[in-house]
């Protein structure tokens, strides 16, 4: 059985409902984990679903874990993670799960497979300039990490890998889980011919001809802090540590001079750096009460 976990937070209802309609027709079970302050009713678009509401916002890692534990409890073999603003085709789950089952029959030990990502801002397929490909086999390419949305997980490996790291709260959660799986000898793969439209960041800006992602001010706290937290871990790839640590001054400059809400951005970045150096994890709301 395949179950889907859709995490929502103050969602654009039109986008979320379109996604739910697509997912409902392709999976046996749908779990909606709602981190919004106000509850939402999706019964007008899908008939049967498990709804979990956490108005205090537990973060993406905890939301995934609640959904994954539920899927395990009802006997699902695979779990599909999706964000509220992702867009999938009518055969998305079938194609992705077919690749997973084929790889399992070949005993390839693939813990998760994700699609190629087309950014809704640029309408271009995202390609990493530095992430190395681990292997290539027909329609799959082995990679070091994939994003959470669109990730199909073989739930049988969760006992070995563990669940998502809730201490990170949001940024880096998907990559950390992939790195941990690879450190245990398992593989993470991307489907070369399956594409999913997804919104990466809140907007885009350009500086001296280079386009970069822009997120909300509070996300900077988690991004800066989690870079420092993850850089201490031995299984995190060296290229990621060098790249992210090296870009901290650049990102600090861009967010403190080139964006709106500059004072808020500076405050969140500084808090993130301080808490990261101190090894403080969890939610901003808890740490900065």
Automatic annotation (TrEMBL):
Residues 5-97 form the Glycosyltransferase 2-like domain. Keywords: Glycosyltransferase, Transferase. The keyword Repeat does not apply. It holds the Pfam family Glycos_transf_2. GO terms for molecular function: glycosyltransferase activity. PANTHER family: GALACTOFURANOSYLTRANSFERASE GLFT2 (PTHR43179:SF12), RHAMNOSYLTRANSFERASE WBBL (PTHR43179). Belongs to the glycosyltransferase 2 family. This is Glycosyltransferase family 2 protein. It comes from Shewanella maritima.
